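Quick one, T. Sequence first:
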Amino acid sequence: MKKTLRNSCLSLCILALILALSLTVRAQTPAPAAPATPAAAAPTPVVTPADAELKDAAGKAPATADLAKGDPGGTITGTINDVPAADSKAGVTLPDVANQVGQNKIAVNFVWTLVTGFLVMFMQAGFAMVESGLCRVKNANHTYMMNFFVYTCGLFAYWILGFAIQMGGAAGNSNLGGLNTLTGEKSMTLFGKTWGLFGQTGYFLSGHTYDVGVMVIFLFEMVFMDTALTIVTGACAERWKFLTFAVSSVIMGAITYPLYGNWAWGAGWLSQLGTNVGLGKGYCDFAGSGAGGSGSAGAN
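C-alpha cells:
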C-alpha cells in the first residue's frame, strides 16, 4: 500500500514538472509580429485653376537675359516673379498676389501722404519771407527765428501730447491701413448719442502706436499744426517777446490746436454731427482751412 502511494506521488511530481516546463517554453516563445500598418500617403496638393494660371505666368516671365538688354518702355519690368511667395516650394499663389496688391495700394497712399506733407512743410519758408517782409528791418531776424523755432516748440509738444489728443481715436482710416492702434477716444453720452471729446492713445508715439501708418499720419498732421502756429507768429510779429512766443507755441501745439483738430478730424463731436443729429455728413473741412484757419482768425 505504501509502495503504491509512493508511486502515485512520484507520478504526480513528474506530471507537474512536465507542465511547468511546457509553460516556461511557451512564455519564452516570441509572439507573432502584428501586421505592419501601411504608411499614410502624403496628401496630394490641390492645384486650383488660379494657381495654375499664376505658375503659367511665372513660366512666361521675361528672362534675366531679356532684362539685361534694357527696358526703356517699362513693359517687362515688374512681373509675377517680383511678388514674394509665402512658401518658396509652392511658388506664388493667389493669396500672395492679393496681399501684394493690398500692400502696394497702402504703400502708394503712404508715399502720396508723405509728399503732400513735405510740400506743406516748405510753406514754412514762405511764411518766414512774407512775415519778415512786412516787418521793419531791425525785427527781421527776430521774425525769421520765430518761424524756424516754432517747429522745435510745436513738434516737441505735439509729439508728447498733441498728437494723442487730436488723433488718438482716429482708427478706421482704410486709406492708411486702418490706423487700428488709435482707438482711445474719450467720449461722453448725451441724449442717447456718443460724442467724442479727445483722443487718449499715441503719447510719444510709443507702445502699440509705434506703427508705420501712425507715423505717416503723425507727419501729415504735424505740418498742418505747425502751419497754424506759424500764422500766429506773423500776426504777433513785432508785438511779443521770444520767450512769450515759445511758451504760446508749446501750449498751442500740445492742447489748443489738437483739441479742435480732434473735434473736426479725429472722431470728435463735430465730425459726428451727421450720424448723431442727421446734419448731412457732419462738419466738413476743406484742406485744413477750418481748424488751421481758426488759429489765424483768432490771432488777427
